[in-house]
Amino acid sequence: MSSKQARLLRSNYSMRLLVNRSPQEEQGTALRATRLSKDFKQADGSTTLVLDEATLEVCPGELVGLVGESGSGKTTLLNILGCIDSVSRGELEIGGVCVGNASSSRRRIIRRDRVGIVHQSFALLPTLTASENVMIPLHLQGKPRLEASLRVQSVLEQVDMLEKADMFPRHLSGGQLQRVAIARSIVHSPMVVLADEPTGNLDSRNSVAIMKLLRAIAETGCAIVCATHDQEVVSRCDRVLQTKTGASRATRFALG
Ligand SMILES: Nc1ncnc2c1ncn2[C@@H]1O[C@H](COP(=O)(O)OP(=O)(O)O)[C@@H](O)[C@H]1O
Ligand SMILES: [Mg+2]
Q1: Which of 17, 41, 123, 227 has a CB 3.0–4.6 Å from the CB of 189, allowing a cystine?
Q2: Which of 174, 181, 177 is nearest to 203 (CA)?
Q3: Does residue 185 surpass a pLDDT of 90?
């Protein structure tokens, strides 16, 4: 295949990924959590309530901040929204699909197809190159090899990391690592991207660049929830959910 043909196929493929969603998915709520509670069992058999009836809705294209002091439950909430962890009580819908009491294998499929996750510490596999790391979600979906590698190239181009595609994480800077991690989070065109303090390990120049990238991703119709302490990040969100610690010491999230 000539490079021109490959470019054309790549751009057709990215367009198809962007318009692949049903009108209902595009117009509806991307993420709806209703009265989500989470308690953790402690070693002594007691339970600690961490989230107390957290309720939130995020629409396609929205970039929402999640702000609160350390230990207030931001990561716990993101893990539940991302189907990594189960809820103790409450309802959760991702793109109209009910996650609430889903089994762990059902949650794994919902996460694989509908959610992208960006970690503060990048969480790239050190023995894989940048492009191999970005390939992982497509590999999990069983996408054909050529289609997957064209999509990886397209996304690496989008985050301006195509030139470093064959480099290993140890040779990349913090900002570059986070770009690759973001590429991995969007390569399978998720409806929702959950970013846990994505600028926590970056200087301010790189933080601004990462937020511009997240904004560009939101503009493609993806809903983004971003836990942060960073005022620069907060100022770039459409709205902010602030933790509210009640008498029970558990956290609720209130619209800011
Ligand atoms: N798997 C777990 N088992 C028990 N307690 C947990 C677990 N995960 C988190 N916690 C507790 O939940 C609280 C909220 O933690 P976390 O969600 O990491 O807060 P944040 O991200 O806002 O700093 C903390 O008190 C933490 O110790
Ligand atoms: Mg956290």
Answers
A1: 17
A2: 174
A3: yes
- For ion ligand 2, residues whose CB falls within 5 Å: 74-75
d(CA 42, CA 50): 12
pLDDT, tens digit, 9 for 90 and up, residues 3-56:
544 444 333 333 333 334 444 445 689 999 999 999 998 899 889 899 988 999
Three-state SS at 58: strand
* CA distance linking residue 136 with residue 131, whole number of Å: 9
Average pLDDT over residues 198-209: 92
pTM for the model stands at 0.87
Greatest distance between any 2 Cα atoms in the chain: 65
The predicted pLDDT at position 6 comes to 44
Q: Ligand 1 in contact with 46 (CB < 6 A)?
A: no
* Domain 3-128+190-255 CATH (choose: 3.30.460.10, 3.20.20.70, 3.30.1490.20, 3.40.50.300): 3.40.50.300
Ligand 1 pocket, mutate which of 76, 226, 253 (most atoms under 8 A from CB): 76
pLDDT in tens, 48-79: 899 988 999 999 999 999 998 888 899 999 99
Residue 249 CB less than 6 A away from ligand 1? no
The atom number, within ligand 1, closest to the CA of 69 reads 22
Ligand 2 center from residue 230 Cα (angstroms): 13
Question: 239: part of which helix (H) or strand (E)?
Answer: strand 239-245
The bound ligand whose nearest atom lies closest to the alpha carbon of 84 is 1
Query: 74 in ligand 1 pocket by Cβ < 6 Å?
Result: yes
